[in-house]
């Protein structure tokens, strides 16, 4: 069941009513982020933890790689400095760690969200890409009654229900 | 939203007691080892004026960015900025100790050392204190004007007053960028008169902003615990943490940038600063400085749950308080006292200045409604939520 709303307030009203009925809301598409929806959907993400460990891994890997190159594999004398010039490694470590975190987090996110280049976009309602608010309710959730839900969404101010 | 802060009698007595301890420690220090006493005097003076300047800058940033969330808490940085006139008097008293601290103030050093002679048109005692007077006059004038407009706003709603404060904030930020840079160079960097670092002033300013922001947060949390500032919620705490987190990173960046360029350039007139400070006790302080001011805030304030939790924030703030002391000790002691001495004089004088600072802050907190009444963003601040 898809409900299309013209404004945020109607959507929030319907969102609360549908939730209190115990129906499962599959997804809500809004033109801008709405706190109440973000909290109400109750979705949790672990991508921040993943990003932290990618950063840790990246920093250690870059430091290790530079140590190997500058000390073990190919020591060169730069103006009498020690081979292990730790302070000068830091700058490269910061920059390379940012790159590693960005790329690995992007790949993790893409893999989890199952998106890849060339994938055809799954658009529930074309108006969701414009200025409308679209709510999708799972038809298989217990207590689902198409007629009752249609009436409820219409009463909350939905401009289109199907 | 009238909220009146009443100064607890115990806190007042405690502050006065701490000031007495500080004065005793200073007098004992002067009699035994005047250089050490004056080094302490300079350190604590700079420490607390940094907090006040950082707090005033915090208000300025809120106004020019038109931030809504902080409107309910602006009386706390205002009260901290009220310390600046007291610091001005204390800094003028430095005239009696200037010969104990600054090598360039000795006539024989100017006569024999060509580098000091070269710098003497700028670094000489009359001009040094003339600068102190001008800087403090500007800071006092601007912070008092900001405070007056802010109190006027309590009487009646007016967008004009808000715009006026925004304008004053712009002027203050512009003025403080120049004056505080010169001030930190005068007070701390010129202790090592042969040494120079172009990022020193920026680092001192970021340290002031970082520690000022953390003290604001600490005062807000303490007031909330005593039943004031009921509007405080977890989103506000998160925003305060963002300031500390972001500024700790900037501080770490500047501190490392100063060290790495000097280390890599390896020019004797620059490296001697760190050569003295990388061995023995100072070597420990070098790493302690980085851990306290960067590593701990960075790691502990990063997770979302801890950035909203007082249980994590308060210990981190307490460590940052130690961190600012460590940084100034690390910069001042090797240049003046040489030997790393830490004892009752250091503790007593720090407590004395802390007592004065807290007495000024609570007195000014009690002078006006704790929550501003007609700030245009007040409602947004009360409702703040993300």
UniProtKB/TrEMBL annotation, chain A:
Natural source organism: Sunxiuqinia elliptica
Chain ranges passing through the membrane: 50-69, 89-109
Protein name: Quinol:cytochrome c oxidoreductase membrane protein
Pfam family, one: ActD
InterPro entries associated with the record: ActD (IPR021776)
Keywords linked to the UniProt accession: Membrane, Transmembrane, Transmembrane helix
Residues in coiled coil: none
TrEMBL record, chain B:
UniProt keyword terms in alphabetical order: Membrane, Transmembrane, Transmembrane helix
Regions that span the bilayer: 12-31, 46-69, 81-102, 122-142, 171-189, 195-223, 243-264, 284-302, 311-330, 342-366
First and last residue of the signal peptide: none
Keyword check for Zinc: no
Protein name: Quinol:cytochrome c oxidoreductase quinone-binding subunit 2
Provenance organism: Sunxiuqinia elliptica
């Amino acid at each position: 069941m898809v409900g299309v709303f013209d404004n945020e307030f109607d959507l929030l009203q319907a969102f609360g009513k549908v939730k209190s009925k115990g129906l499962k809301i599959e997804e809500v598409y809004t033109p801008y982020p709405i706190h109440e929806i973000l909290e109400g959907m109750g979705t949790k993400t672990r991508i921040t933890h993943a990003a932290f460990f990618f950063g840790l891994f990246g920093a250690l890997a870059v430091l290790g790689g530079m140590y190997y190159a500058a000390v073990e594999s190919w020591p060169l004398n730069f103006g009498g400095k020690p081979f292990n010039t730790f302070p000068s490694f830091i700058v490269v470590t910061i920059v390379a760690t940012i790159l590693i975190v960005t790329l690995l987090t992007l790949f993790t996110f893409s893999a989890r969200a199952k998106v890849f280049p060339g994938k055809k976009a799954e658009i529930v309602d074309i108006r969701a890409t414009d200025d409308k608010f679209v709510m999708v309710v799972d038809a298989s959730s217990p207590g689902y009654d198409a007629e009752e839900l249609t009436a409820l969404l219409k009463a909350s101010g939905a401009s289109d229900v199907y | 939203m009238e909220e009146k802060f009443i100064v607890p009698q115990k806190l007042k007595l405690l502050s006065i007691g701490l000031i007495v301890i500080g004065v005793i420690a200073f007098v004992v220090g002067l009699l035994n080892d005047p250089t050490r006493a004056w080094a302490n005097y300079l350190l604590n003076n700079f420490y607390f004026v940094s907090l006040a300047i950082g707090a005033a800058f915090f208000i300025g940033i809120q106004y020019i960015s038109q931030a809504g969330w902080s409107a309910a808490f602006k009386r706390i940085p205002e009260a901290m900025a009220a310390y600046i006139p007291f610091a001005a008097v204390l800094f003028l008293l430095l005239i009696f100790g200037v010969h104990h601290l600054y090598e360039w103030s000795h006539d024989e050093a100017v006569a024999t050392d060509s580098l000091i002679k070269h710098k003497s048109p700028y670094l000489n005692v009359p001009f040094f204190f003339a600068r102190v007077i001008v800087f403090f006059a500007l800071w006092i004038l601007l912070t008092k004007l900001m405070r007056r407009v802010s109190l006027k706003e309590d009487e009646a709603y007016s967008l004009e007053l808000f715009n006026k404060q925004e304008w004053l904030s712009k002027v203050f930020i512009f003025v403080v960028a120049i004056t505080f840079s010169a001030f930190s160079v005068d007070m701390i960097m010129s202790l090592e008169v042969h040494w120079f670092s172009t990022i020193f002033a920026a680092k001192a300013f970021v340290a002031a902003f970082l520690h000022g922001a953390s003290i604001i947060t600490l005062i807000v949390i303490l007031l909330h615990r005593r039943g004031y500032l009921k509007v405080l919620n977890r989103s506000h705490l998160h925003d305060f943490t963002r300031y500390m987190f972001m500024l700790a990173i900037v501080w770490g960046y500047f501190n490392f940038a100063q060290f790495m360029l000097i280390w890599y350039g390896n020019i004797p007139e620059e490296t001697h600063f760190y050569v003295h400070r990388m061995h023995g006790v100072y070597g420990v302080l070098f790493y302690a400085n980085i851990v306290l001011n960067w590593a701990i805030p960075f790691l502990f304030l990063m997770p979302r749950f801890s950035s909203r939790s007082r249980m994590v924030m308060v210990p981190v703030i307490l460590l940052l308080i130690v961190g600012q002391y460590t940084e100034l000790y690390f910069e001042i002691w090797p240049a003046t006292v040489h030997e790393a001495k830490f004892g009752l004089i250091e503790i007593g004088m720090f407590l004395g200045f802390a007592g004065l600072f807290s007495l000024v802050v609570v007195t000014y907190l009690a002078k006006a409604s704790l929550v501003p009444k007609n700030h245009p963003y007040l409602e947004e601040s009360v409702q703040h939520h993300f």
